[in-house]
Amino acid sequence: MDDQMNNNGPVQYQPTQQINNDSDGYATAILVLGILSVCCSCFPCGVISLALRAANKDQISPDKQGMVTAGFVTSIIGLVLWGIGWIVNICIWLAAI
């Protein structure tokens, strides 16, 4: 009992861990969707990744900004590859006519 009391009353315990920001999960989602947009040429994944980045850019902690940037870049690359694929498909279809 003596170790829980000091001269000023009960010992006040301070939390030692910071509460993790819920919006940091968006950084992971942006990165995963960006990678899927490149690997699978998935247009919706790229668009959703860009939308999540635009909506939550200021809310994500600075230590997760690298993940967000990587997700942004991979989303752009995935969308460009998807567009090139459609252009090639249209050219092949027109050449077959």
Task: Please explain how this structure is put together.
The mean pLDDT is 85. It contains three helices and two strands; from the N terminus they run ββααα. Helices cover 64% and strands 4% of the residues. A two-stranded antiparallel sheet has the order 1-2. A hairpin with a 2-residue loop joins strand 1 (5-6) and strand 2 (9-10). The chain has 97 residues and is mainly alpha-helical.
Tags for this model:
97 residues, mainly alpha, two-stranded antiparallel sheet
Topology:
Elements: E1 5-6, E2 9-10, H1 24-39, H2 43-56, H3 65-96
Antiparallel strand pairs: 1-2
The structure class reads mainly alpha
Low-confidence stretches: none
- How many distinct beta strands? 2
Helical content band: 55-70%
Distance between the ends: 90 Å
β-strand percent reads under 5%
Instruction: Output the radius of gyration.
Output: 24 Å
Q: What sequence of helices (H) and strands (E) makes up the elements?
A: EEHHH
Mean pLDDT: 85
Number of separate helices: 3
Which shape, going by the Cα principal axes?
A: rod-shaped
Order of neighbouring strands in the sheet with most strands: 1-2
